[in-house]
Each structure stands twice: as structure tokens, then as C-alpha cells.
Write a structure and sequence with these properties.
Elements lengths: L8 E5 L4 E3 L6 H8 L17 E5 L1 E3 L4 E3 L9 H9 L6 E3 L9 E4 L26 E7 L11 H13 L5 E2 L7 H7 L3 E7 L8 E7 L6 E7 L3 E8 L5 E8 L9 H10 L3 H24 L6 E8 L1 H7 L20 E4 L12 E4 L9 H10 L8 E5 L4 E6 L4 E6 L20 E7 L6 E5 L11 H5 L6 E2 L1 H13 L20 E4 L2 E7 L5 E3 L1 H25 L6 E5 H4 L4 H7 L10 E3 L3 H11 L1 H13 L1 E2 L8 H8 L10 H6 L10 H4 L3 H16 L1
Helix pairs in contact: 8-14, 8-15, 10-13, 11-16, 14-15, 16-19
Length: about 675
Amino acid sequence: MNASPTDPLVLFMPSGKRGRFPVGTPVLDAARQLGVYVESVCGGRATCGRCQVEVQEGNFAKHKIVSSNDHISPRGPKEERYDRVRGLPPHRRLSCSATILGDLVIDVPQDTVVNAQTIRKAATDRVIERNAAVQMCYVEVDEPDMHKPLGDLDRLKAVLAKDWGWKDLLIAPHLVPQVQKILRKENWGVTAAIHRDMESSRPFIIALYPGLKNEAYGIACDIGSTTIAMHLVSLLSGRIVASAGAPNPQIRFGEDVMSRVSYVMMNPDGQEAMTKAVREAVNGLIGKVCAESGVDRNDIFDCVFVANPIMHHLFLGIDPTELGQAPFALAVSGAMQFWAHEIGIEVSKGARLYTLPCIAGHVGADAAGATLSEGPYRQDRMMLLVDVGTNAEIVLGNRSRVVAASSPTGPAFEGAEISSGQRAAPGAIERVRIDPETLEPRYRVIGVDKWSDEDGFEEEAKATGVTGICGSAIIEVVAEMYLSGIISEDGVVDGSMAARTPRILSNGRTFSYLLRDGEPRITVTQNDVRAIQLAKAALYAGIKLLMDKQGVSEVDTIRFAGAFGSFIDPKYAMVLGLIPDCDLTEVKAVGNAAGTGALMALLNREHRREIEREVAKIEKIETALEPDFQQLFINAMALPNKVDPFPKLAAAVKLPPKKQLPEGEAGDGAPRRRSREERAARRGRD
């Protein structure tokens, strides 16, 4: 950048990058010199309209800039022509044509959509600076010359180097036989899709089109054990044009990941069957998002995937057997790249596929995606990031140090092992409150707007029925039973409460709480409470182990990742002892953070390098090898915890006094209960 201290100062927003440039420098050139991502397909010919920017007017004292539209060249013939043909808003300029005349603050709109298909509301409000691995480059290739016998492909490469700076280009093999026909179709004008991920790698021509091609798309996909979620994204505008989800068809082979590993072990063709099933589901989702947005699946040039380790291996066609037994060895832990068609993904034949790195044997690329999204390593505060599932993934740290672990919570939070449990679906109870005086419950049901104690509830509920309890309500009902005194801190249902309410039912030596007296009859049994205790104790013990490794007694902020985390009420999660004590305002659900991480990696290749570097630095803690885990687990069986204080929770919620039930009344005596807890702790780590 040959600029003097007297040259105009240009600031690009929202990146904040700035520099001085001589008068007459095109705004697009200034952006490129500063590394600001401004899309351009046509190579400065003012035909694609992708490079639109806005001048911000005013005195920006903080930056010592007075910016004005007088400091940029007036609209010229190219912009006027574009305005006549396609329309250019009065406040927008084409950065390839507009030149710098004075100090400027330039806004690069993140919502620029030219020739776009149907746009859905963005799945995330986050602004992601674009630096995609794919760039569309229009060029006009010299015609053949008998005096300069250079091949058509070589002349194409030469003009891409001259106009766009692409050197040492490779070409996808399937394109080589098509080059001559494509070049001649539109009088030697073509658009090349160039893919380069790492600066150290050679760029590839992955697609070639006659004339100006003004569209390029990518997919970001999270393959979960239960659900597959996908975003279809414009690589040129950064906008999400469609999103969709579908059940993971591997569920028919096993509800949780370990049962799927068992299926592979017991069935010679099990791995191939599950790999085929998940790839077919991914291709089905691609078809769905493309149909919804009117996008041709052959215009998808880049794909980014995240998944837990077992889903990751099965998707890539890797036998996951080693992940089913100690030492839980990954076949590959680093980021992977493929030609998408090589593993049967039905997109452009030249499309590339990237998977984020896995952190450890049971902390996968999905946890890496969530870590990229939430960035504990980018802040000073101690952040706890937890994805609650059948196998919880836990990340704890700040910019000084990050540690990670997994903890086997089991399927209780998803409704399995619960007598009236079910997955979240219309008819499932999702919220529960219990009156501490009368012990009467009220609840909300998915698909019904009213609470159960409101007039008209039963009439509305006829459409869905009241069919069971889903995960968020399981957490709430056990926590509410504790707050109202129905269960003790040890999780024992207090049979003496039967004198106060008919909702306490005797089941031989134990008792249950009647949540709904209907068809079906919905109760919370002693075994249900135990299943939740075992699950939450496994998670808390894993968290506590990481806290001990970090040398902290509390965390500053907590983030629940994953679909289930979005529905967990932080207060009840803390009352239950699912998470450690923390200011409740600092406990937030972040939705599908893994999917957001995949989206970030899709739209900006620098985010790929970022998470690859950070995953290499994360310390992996294997709870199975930690001697303290069993005692932490036993302590965590109590509500909220046997030994850890919860002062911030106590300030926000009235916790009940400690209640010690007589051994006989518990119906499940203390000695037997302790041995059961110890066995569960050992079983969970074996």
C-alpha cells in the first residue's frame, strides 16, 4: 500500500479495518488491500452488483474521521447502467467503480442479496465476516491464436492470474473435457468457481460456467444423534436462504450412540447400513432446502459438517467400534477435507466438504463447533459450555486455558428410563409448577397455549391429548418436588406427605407423585427421580472435575448448547444441581451452537484455522481415569449437591430446609442407596 500520511483515511465497518489510500483508489481495491471481504464476481466490470457498499456520513470523533458522500466519486456510467438494468438504491455504491476522494467510513452491508432466491429469517443474528473458501470470478479469455499456440485451459488460467491474482491453479479433473465447449458458448466469457481453503494450499477451479454466474451456495450441517439440522447459505451474500431438520434415521439401529456402536459390533454390515442411512438423510435435506429456496443443488460448492465422534465416523464411513471401548480411540481427530461426491453427497461435482476437528474420543466436532461459536478462549471470564445429551460434552475455560470432557448422562433427559417420559412432541408436558402449600400441580403441554389450571385447557388439549413428560418438564417436576418438600435432598419421595395430599401414592416400599389423573395416568415415581439423579450427577461430576482442574470454585457464565438446552429453565437446572452455582442472569441457552460454528466455518475460512488451533490447545480430561470422579458423583446425587454451596441460587430461590427421612419411610434405605450410587458411578465410567 503506497500511501502517505496526507492521503485519505478509509475505515471499513463492521470489521473496523482502516488504512490510507491515494485519491482515485477504487473502494474495492482499498478493501482488498486491507483484507476486508467485499464480494465481486465480475472483476470490476460493474455487472454483478455484488460489491455494493454504503458511505456513512458524519463526524466520527472516535476514529477522527469526517465522512461524506462528497468524499467519494459521483456515480459514473457503469453504475448508471447497472441502476437502469437491475436497480441500485440511492444510498448504495458499487465499490469497483466508486473511487476515494477524501476520508470515508464505508459500511459493507451484511445483508446484500443480489439476484437472490427466497430468503428466510436468519437462523442466527450474528454478523459473520465473510471470507468464504469459494470465490466466483468472471473473466474474458483471449481467443485462440495460431501464432501463440497456448491451450484453452492455459489461457483461462493466465487471465485468472492477470485479472484476479490466482496463481498456480489446479482444476477439478471432471472439468477438463468440458473446458473448450464452455469457453466458446458465450464468446469466451466465463465464470470460474475457485476454491481455496488454506493459504498454503493450491487453489482449484471446481466449476466453470459460460457467461456471468452470479450464484454460489454452501451448506452447514450438524449431524446429531437424534436430529440432523442444515442451513443452505449464499456464499456471495452470507445470508441463510433456507434451513431444515430431519430425524436421524440411525435411530432405528439404536436410541443412543453407544447402542449404535453395539449394533456395529453385532452386525457385520451394521456400519455400512448406518453410513448409508445418514448420507441418504443428508441428501434428502439438501433436496428439501433447495426445493424451498429454488436453488439448484449443483450450485452448492462448499459443505461444512459437525457431529459427535460416533456420528462423525459413521458419516465418513469409518467403523466406530474403537470409540465403544477404552481408550476410546478416534480414527482421525483433525479436520478433514474431501470432494463431496466421493462420499456420495449430491451437490456440485466439484464441491468440497470440510469437517471440523474432534476434541477427544467422546467430545466431537459438534463440541468444537460450539466452542468456535461461543469462544470461551476469546474472553477473560470463566465460561462453562455444556451440551446436554445422552453423552454430555463439557468445555470450561477462558483465554488462559480451556479443558474439556464428556460425561455419560444417559437418555433420561430425553424421556427414556422415565415411566411417563417421551420425546418433545405435541401432547408432552413441557413445564411444571407445584404449589408448595397445596402440592397441587399445574403444567403446560406442547401444542396447547393454556396452563392446565386455566379455563378451556381440557378443551384445547383434546387435539393433542396429554401423553407424557418430555425432558424439560422432567427437570422441572423433580426440582419442583424438591422445592415443595415432596422429595428430600437425597431424592427420596416423602411418604408422610400422603396425609396432606392424595397425590402421594404408595408403591409398596416407595412412593410416587401423581402429576395428572387421566388417560394415560402420569406419575413421577421414585425410580424416575433416581434416574434423573443419576443423569444429573454424572453431568455435574464431570463439570466439577473440570472446575477442579481449572482451580476454580465457581464459574462466571454458563451456556447451554444443543436443542435440548434451549428448553431448559436455568433456575430449575440449578435447583436440580445439573449445573454449578452461578448468577442466573449469566446462564443462557445458545441453541444449536454447533450448527452456528459450522456456519462460521462455512462463511469464513479463517474460522477453520481458528478452531483447528484452539482444539489443538484444549486439554482433554478423561473422567474414567480420574480417581475423584466417583466421590464427586456421589456428592452430586443430592439436590442441589451434598457438599457444594449454592449461595447465588439461594439468593434467588427459596430452597427448602434439609429433610432427613427415616430409613423405613424412605422405602429405599440409605445403605442400599449409597451402594447403588457407587455402583452407578462405577458403571458410568466403565
